[in-house]
Amino acid sequence: MEDKSINAVTQDGQRCNPSALGVPKPLTSRYLPVPSLALRNESLRCWSNIPFITMPLSRTHGKSFAHRSELRHAKRIVVKLGSAVVTRGDECGLALGRLASIVEQVSMLQNQGREMMIVTSGAVAFGKQRLRHEILLSQSVRQALHSGQNQLKDMAIPVLEARACAAAGQSGLMALYEAMFTQYSICAAQILVTNLDFHDEQKRRNLNGTLHELLRMNIVPIINTNDAVVPPPEPNSDLQGVNVISVKDNDSLAARLAVEMKTDLLIVLSDVEGLFDSPPGSDDAKLIDIFYPGDQQSVTFGTKSRVGMGGMEAKVKAALWALQGGTSVVIANGTYPKISGHVITDIVEGKKVGTFFSEVKPAGPTVEQQGEMARAGGRALAALQPEQRAEIIYHLADLLTDQREEILSANKKDLEEAERRLALPLMKRLSLSTSKLNSLAIGLRQIAASSQESVGRVIRRTRIAKDLELEQVTVPIGVLLVIFESRPDCLPQVSALAIASGNGLLLKGGKEAAHSNQILHHLTQEALSIHGVKDAVQLVNTREEVEDLCHLDKLIDLIIPRGSSQLVRDIQKAAKGIPVMGHSEGICHVYVDTEASVEKVTRIVRDSKCEYPAACNALETLLIHRDLLRTPLFDQIIDMLRVEQVKIHAGPKFASYLTFSPSEVKSLRTEYGDLECCIEVVDSVQEAIDHIHKYGSSHTDVIITENEKTAEFFLQHVDSACVFWNASTRFSDGYRFGLGKGLSGIILCCLQLGI
User: Any idea which GO molecular function terms this record carries (predicted)?
Assistant: First the structure.
């Protein structure tokens, strides 16, 4: 985290606010949110670089959360800080940078209206630092008096007893927490407990009442075992049930406290990323995203961390005990703030961080398992003969027409459910029809026919020496992740492309098209089954957020987002180590020149704007030469747009020519995606080109003219993917090019080249 007021560097190499070291910071304002006010507060606040929005939080404690996405509803949260998180690498002193980051996140959540509690280690390490300093100082004085200066380097530090270190460190640890929380106008209170405090009914009630009172007053309790007087753990009484747990370390303390206080979430921070299926660091170790009761037998535990009382096995036992008591648990890494600086807030937001403990096992495979299935299926697909891959695609095309009624019935459910939630352009993209399915089937057959040399085609052959030749051939990329919005027809398109190019495929569609996507995916797998490669195409139905999918760099080789420009930008930002094949917005222009044909103009403009206005290749801005204003041609264009019920927005120059103009355009870079367009006036073909370069998206741009010289000038100077002369923008389509339907046809070229 960056803060211009931070200029101290701690011994663990982290930056820390000087006030966190005991230097008070002047407070210009004080945030003491009252819960009843926080419920109505929707204002945005920000500390350091972590923004948040206060939100209403209410949940009746009972069962634990079933899915990560539900963690954002957690009201009462316990954060357990392991010894490896709180202490420095030399085990003497605290990791102040990490601690400052944790306090900032806890403060942020507290000021959202949540009830935060911290179970912390660190008193022994802090006390060890203080006692070592005192011993060294005392020894140095004695040896300087009796043995001479030269023997100072031979001084030995005696083994320090843990209880004494705890006694010496508890006050300093709490003072540090108080100084840090003060920076966020939050009060903290210390509570030291032992195992006896939970077994004595009166003490247990007193502890419960104290914690509830502190939370009521918006105070963050800092809880720790009283290591200065703690007795040895009771034998044979550890984790035997919801009512019995031996508090022998802070893992068991945090679990016991979470259940006693009916907390919604327990976050256990350690020095490993979470729970692995084998000891971390081993070659085959894989992070377990979700851990279910009963999975212990499939896990091999390693040694405990360099400091602390418990290891991962103790954490898992404590986590399962808390889960049984109705508290959700996440175990994550809290030792690398530069990498996981927002680990606590990320967990609460439902992001895939660490290992989430859940009692609800999903019906289908996890997305990680689907990724592995897609890779294996893709390799089997690539090994088929080209004719076999083409046969699969032909069969899928037949299924689209044969199963038309079932597809349209599922699509009708999606439309009915989305009617109140989606805008009209998105509803049009969501809608399927008989004509769409027929067109889709034709496009798939084109892909099948052109896919014979998609895999294994020799691009270049070079003779390096006698009897030694080097060949460059097309090969599959691997596993593709295609994310698409509101367009169920995208699923069979992209599936056919993946099949043709021998790639495994993960599909993530919008939830608004869930029913349509489900049946289309079922038909795709039915087609794949004729050659035993059903697993090559997987539909992700789990609750994984798109951002989480973009982090699976070990499973996914290429991400292709198909949707709005905002979706593409979000994917490009979220992708971690995975290339993204993004596309631009569809801000397409048609320029009407002074020498344009009247008949061609109305036909081209009508088709470009009105045939399918939600498409990315639809006309959005109509550029008209100034000399055409107040001419019969201009009147015919306007009359045609009115008949087609196209809403017109006037560009700045066009508006200046009119006494009563339509609504002036807010931006010349607008993709309407509906029966709307902008009209703007230009003085020449060069000005039209300049306008396109300034406000366009380099997608598709058109000139309408009978002057060949003017047309050639336009074609040569416009820098767009598709530039047409006397043709509709809708011609920019893979189906029209003979490559397959829509943008999919363009993607096919890239997949065939292996780029």
Answer: ATP binding; glutamate 5-kinase activity; glutamate-5-semialdehyde dehydrogenase activity
